[in-house]
Amino acid sequence: MTRKAAFIYSDILSRHILREDHVMQPKRLRYTFELLDAYGAFAFQNSRLVEPRKANRSELKPFHTDDYISAVENLSEGLHEYSASKYNFSDHGDNPIYLGMYDSALLSTGASILAAEMIYNGDVDIAFNPSGGLHHAMPGNASGFCIFNDPVMAIDYLVSKGLKVAYIDIDAHHGDGVEHAYYSTNKVLTISVHESGQFLFPGSGSVNSIGTGSGLGYSVNIPLHPYSNDQIYAMVMSDIILPIIDKFSPDVIATQLGMDPYFKDPITHLGLSTQGHNQLVRSLGSACSKWLAFGGGGYDLGAVARAWTMDYGVMIGEAWDDNVPEKFKGNYGIQRLSDHELPSISEEMSERLEQFTSSTMREVKELVFPIHSI
User: Fold this and answer.
1) Which SS3 state, helix, strand or coil, does residue 225 take?
2) Contact 219, 179 (CB under 8 A)
3) What phi-psi label fits residue 185: left (phi over 0), alpha (psi between -120 and 50 degrees) or beta?
4) CB of 308 closer than 8 Å to CB of 39
5) Which residue from 109, 116, 185, 189 has the fewest beta carbons nearer than 10 Å?
6) Does the active-site annotation cover 269?
7) Single pTM value for the model
């Protein structure tokens, strides 16, 4: 059965600049929208293009502190009543201060809450906010380019309506902020598959971080070795992620679809292709009828646009031609959706990857599977 889907976007989401030399470039959202529009994605009967709305302060407060929200608002206006460093902002680090950052963060957060509302109200079965997925933000500070933790705001809304939510994060970086929010509850299952913290920010997400109290076993971490490729991701999806989701039996699946595991991403070290990413998304989308999707990381801008275009195709049940439409071809260097030249891996590296992945999967199964009676 064809599901109804919404793509939540406005050009204003892509206009702000964190810093001229910053690797996070919101214009990748515009690239994605323009590519989808070239395919006619918003003309299908089951596809809706929806304007975002700003979150309000009360929607932030269940997770973020009053003090932090006030600090972001103040610093965003160029004022100095709050110490930037106290909240992990700095001119030259990951989290720069820029004019209007408060409103930008409210809009991307509100877009995710709106996506959750549309799913709960039955307006759509699937809602995708590509500007969301800012999974590192903590209650009292910014982290990893993230100011407000929109996945938590959206999931909190669904939980407040009595729904069970499974959150699966395929970003290259551990979804630490979302895990933090639900580490001691069994109402939300969090699964993060990421480059091991031995090699990459934020340095967390080890296999033995499995939750506490009633949440024991409901935080699942699958750290991967650098250069882990499509085959490794597919194995982890089929052998670990899908069985746990199936046992949890969520009402809604929430996915963070970061494209920074891409093999050419400039700040990570994984080996995923756009088609490998899309296969993961296809598997996740079949795990539950109601699907809330966020964007996330991704710093090869063309790869982000290609992958998220393929992903939205899955959401509306359309398989795009691999060759992008002639009217778009060449824009931003994009010719095809999939990758036709994949990196080669030495025999020595293949063995190392196999050993690392096998060990990780064995540990996850030993620690988590018994809790879920798998």
Assistant:
1) coil
2) yes
3) beta
4) no
5) 185
6) no
7) 0.98
